[in-house]
Amino acid sequence: MNFIAFGNMYQVGPHGCYGARYVGHRAGCPVETSGVAVNLACGTGLLAVTTAASAIARNEASIAAAVGADTPSRLRRDIFVPSFTDISCGKHIAKTAEERAGEAGLARAAMDAWAWKSHARARASVKLRAAEIVPVAGLAVDDAVLEDASPERFATAKLLFSDGTETMTHANVHGIVDGGAALVLASAKTAKGRALGRLVSSALVGVPPERMAYAAVPAVRKALEQARWRASEVDLWEINETFAAQVLLDQAELGIDAERVNPNGGAIALGHPFGATGVRLVHTLLLELRRRSRRRGVAAISVGGGLGIAVCVEAL
């Protein structure tokens, strides 16, 4: 291992800035292994992946790790809660998504149906996802998945906002969980015959903060353009379920089949451990492409502040 890109959204505490270095030490990497900490809020994990890939492309490393982790359960409330309000537009990021949903005529029933589907898919794929999980402290499953998630449960969920919009609820947005994820990336020469897939292209774009819910769309389009793919040629998609509304808006804008999106459940069911999510999306995508004997995949995340990040990958 020559290089570590460590993604962490909340780099708090006296040693938070040394995350990449400590990951290397704890993993038993040689002392010469370098590393950087990266932060792109919800898109941090994908940024860790592209940062590790860039180090390899620049010949600074032949083997690199993309690592992401966050533990919101350990954060002080006065740090955690305000971070969801965008100071540029003065709105909670969920409110910006709700407003875009209103513009598009997207009803709460559609959001609730997608949230229910996320949990149903996650329950159905427990055995498949076991291949992605390293047990920690006796925990070997995603414990945020609801076992009794009936459609009625979503229809009666508590509203996030009490201003009469009545669409965004605590049940049709991502779960807040602790988690970590890691991928090993290598040069084509080093990885020959051992890789799950290859990173084809990536893109990071900006949109007005109040249109955050659409931010993944231009990022996907730019990444597809660089890969010389069309959306119709993509076999599977992993689009982070920051909000059910945002995933549905992305599908409509990109014209993609919902059956190809998050087939094993998304962040509404599995949770969204900010820094880890993007790394997890890429790993999930490559494994599922292999299981289905398919080739092309896209992972994308809309990020608070009006940023979007996407990567195109190809299973080998």
Labels describing this entry:
single chain; 316 residues; alpha/beta; Peroxisomal Thiolase, Chain A, domain 1; 2 domains; four-stranded mixed beta sheet; 12 helices; 19% strand
Question: Can you lay out the helices and strands and say which pair or pack?
Answer:
Blueprint: E1 3-7, H1 19-26, E2 34-38, H2 44-57, E3 63-70, H3 77-80, E4 85-86, E5 91-92, H4 93-103, H5 108-124, H6 126-129, H7 151-155, E6 179-186, H8 188-191, E7 197-206, H9 216-227, E8 236-239, H10 244-254, H11 267-270, H12 274-291, E9 296-303, E10 307-315
Parallel strand pairs: 1-2, 1-3, 8-9
Antiparallel strand pairs: 3-6, 4-5, 7-10, 9-10
Give a description of the structure.
Strands 2-1-3-6 form a four-stranded mixed beta sheet, with helices on both faces. The chain has a four-stranded mixed beta sheet with strand order 7-10-9-8, sandwiched between helices. The protein is 35% helix and 19% strand. It has two domains: 3-74 and 180-191, 3-Layer(aba) Sandwich (Peroxisomal Thiolase, Chain A, domain 1); 85-172 and 198-315, Thiolase/Chalcone synthase (Peroxisomal Thiolase, Chain A, domain 1), CATH 3.40.47. It has 316 residues and is an alpha/beta fold. The protein is globular. It contains twelve helices and ten strands. It has helices at residues 19-26, 44-57, 77-80, 93-103, 108-124, 126-129, 151-155, 188-191, 216-227, 244-254, 267-270, 274-291, and strands at residues 3-7, 34-38, 63-70, 85-86, 91-92, 179-186, 197-206, 236-239, 296-303, 307-315. Strand 1, helix 1 and strand 2 (34-38) form a beta-alpha-beta unit. Helix 2 packs across helix 12.
